[in-house]
Amino acid sequence: MTIKITLDGGKVVTAHLGKHSIKTDQPIRGGGTDSAPAPYDLFLASLGTCAGIYIQSFCEQRGLPYQDITIDQTMIYDPQARRMKQIRLDINLPKGFPEKYKESLIRAAELCAVKKTIQDPPEFLITAQEK
Predict the structure, then answer these.
(1) Which of 22, 51, 78, 80 would disulfide-bridge 109, Cβ 3.0–4.6 Å?
(2) Mean of the pLDDT values across residues 54-81?
(3) Global confidence as pTM
């Protein structure tokens, strides 16, 4: 899989994935116009949305309603280390959600491929060449 990245001016950078384009920008304090999420914000959002896909699939497979389930994602930042110290996902279930599925639902969310990639990171190789 190849994602084409274009530098579109200002602080706007776009990722092109097949027929989809994902625009990013920097916040105003970072010199951008805040016209789109910052790349790091998209990265963080990918964690919660990935968990959401696994939760939705879990519910669909069991005929459980999922439309009223929400996830609150909270990040704890360590200013001294200048990195995230903890990312917490709190799954909010509607009243009456079957108790017997709660632990299994958590395990389904833990299957998130984005989370697994962070826990066992790939090697990064960055090159530069003239076209």
Answers:
(1) 51
(2) 97
(3) 0.89
State the residue for tokens 């200002």: 10
Question: Which single residue is written with the structure tokens 């930042």?
Answer: 77
Spatial contact of 14 and 29, defined as CB atoms under 8 Å apart = no
Nearest 5 degrees, angle CA 109-CA 96-CA 86? 30
66 vs 92: CA distance, rounded Å: 10
DSSP tag of 100? G
How many Å separate Cα 42 from the centre of its chain? 6
Burial of 126 (0-12, 13-18, 19+ CB in 10 A): exposed
Q: Can you tell me the distance from the alpha carbon of 46 to that of 39, in angstroms, rounded to the nearest whole number? A: 11
- Name the average pLDDT for the chain: 96
Pairing assessment for the beta strands 20-24 and 70-78 based on DSSP bridges: unpaired
Query: Residue 54 and residue 62: Cα distance in Å, rounded?
Result: 13
Strands (E), 10-64: 12-17, 20-24
Give me the pLDDT at residue 88, please: 97
